[in-house]
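Good morning N.,

You mentioned wanting to compare the apo and holo forms, so I went ahead and generated the holo version with zinc ion. This is what I fed in:
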Amino acid sequence: VILPSLSVVSCHHAKPATAVYDFEPDTVEVAKPKPPAKEITLAQAGVNASWMDRSADPCTDFYKFSCGGWMAANPIPADYSTWDVTRQMEEDNLSTLKDLLEKAKAAPATDEVSTKISAFYTACTDEAAIEKADAKPMAPMLAVVAKVKDSKSLTAALIELHSHRMWALFDIGAQQDFKDATQVITGVDQDGLGLPDRDYYVGDDKHLAEIREFYVAHVEKSLVLAGMKPAAAKQAATDVMRIETEIAKLSQTRVERRDPYKVYNRVERDGLAKAAPHIDWDAYWKGIGFPDVKAISVTSVEYVKGIDALTQSEKPAAWKNYLTWTVVRSMSPWLSKRFDEEQFALQQKLQGLKQQLPRWKRCVNATDDALGELLGQPYVAVKFSGDSKDLAEGVVTNVKGAMGTELASLAWMDDATRKVAQEKLGKMFDQIGYPSKWRVYDFKLSSSDYAANWLAAQGFEFRRQMNKVGKPVDRTEFQMTPPTVNAYYDSSLNEMVFPAGILQPPAFSKDFIDAVNYGATGSTVGHELTHGFDDEGAQFDPDGNLRNWWSESTAKEFKADGKCVSALYSTFEVTPGGIKENGDLTNGENIADIGGLKLAFAAYHKVRAKADAALVADGFSEDQMFFIAYAQTWCTNERPEREEEQVRTNEHSLARFRVLGPLQSIPAFADTFQCKAGSVMRPAKVCTVW
Ligand SMILES: [Zn+2]
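and this is what came out, ligand included:
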């Protein structure tokens, strides 16, 4: 959506893989008279009245109608590039986590969770020690890089950097085999750029040219800080830009990478060695601690061939510069102020940020990154206890049920395809809140050496990933930490996961009415579920294998519907007359937004059908509150620089279009607000996928 340990906390969400949902179409019930509507307040319902701007016309701009008040009252803080309801939920979580960490820091208990999170957080907040260490933590890495003089020493440097997840030239990790989801294999992917995307190097508009110029100066300054002489740093910055530009040219675009067939190439160990003969792969696999790696998929063979040629066309001195830069840029956020401030200058340029986050927030985030499932344990005890999990489980079950009903009645789907779609829904797995078994973090931590902790955490994560290769798939893994305000669907696992962090007010509460919980959170559940059936997810079968299970005629209809959505979103202007949304890049997310909202609406209607009396709050019907609650999860203020970065690099549409796009595509919305034909929110043409 929106937008990824062992203790005694247990849960029982693991649904049997054969769970069967109600696939029968709703029977038409004979309308029986209902008692008069019950009056409640918007606050009692869970709707934020002050966030609305009721002077706006809901049929012209429903985003403003629902969020105008919020937008006026919530300017972007100087240390953020975006401010939105998700960030506010994250802020709430940050304060909770801060309390937990400060408590552990002040009086560390003897249990493993408390000892480890306290050491990590304490070292991060010890700014004096960090200043004193200055550039020293980089020294061991830079010493290996300094020895680069040929292929052998270049491989040695890649081993050292990659073992700490500092990605130069490419990255590696574990992945489920796209075509046999029971197997975990090694994946090799493009990586090694200091700017957010390949397009930043090769795009030809003025803004990007300006960023490139800034970047080269930034590399030069950072390298001087790391101890390089100014003339050498100037040369190095030129080398870095040239090498990264070559890597960018070889890299796939984000739109290409949405096609699973384009990023899956089982070449195995020999095939990789053949594509890149100048890298000593035997030494590489041995050096990273996994000498027996055999099953390998690369995202692009052309990419591997290209970087291999690059290792030959560039001189060792240039490689030294590129690798030095990779170390410096990877480690700067964890070093003394002068490094940290220089790396922040680039973030400012890219995202329009005005100032750094306060130290404590960055330390809470870093602890969550490094030790998320330790910190997550006290978090869920405080924020996700009692019946929260059961309540969320109910929403998930009902939204799945709505999809079952939908699948049973879809006119454009033939029966053979429908049968597999139903099987896929039946096998869809979900995890809610927190993992059933917590991750074990078996590495040493110091309460006085922050950079060492960070390196240890990176090393641990690298080994943890690679250790999955060749083992059975772990279905209990969470790819996000429990406090994360987000959710995900994984195509290979055919699974959706909702961390406790997103199941919080104002998105979800046991005190909210169904219309609000379903509008705000049911839509998120529907969104993740629909990912299993979006243009990308639909290419994976019920068992998570990349396999075409669509009949030709149904696939044709499905593709045409997806194109309709893409065309609609490509008309959305980010700035008047300026850049527009990329409907292809965001297609999967948009399909999921539209489908998710529709499923949530259907699920909530079914739940409420049994209710005695309808609820009315301040003149708003339950249906109206459903849509307002949905829109209010997206209330956002965003800096123009950040909007532009998002449009170029992110698969999600901007918040306002995540409101307007789906609501324009669901006629029930226009009916609910009685929008006239021809109004913005009742367009003549409506795109429907699910
Ligand atoms: Zn999504």
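The pocket of zinc ion is lined by residues 1, 3, 527, 531, 589, 592 (CB under 6 Å).

Happy to go through it together on a call whenever suits you.

Best,
F.
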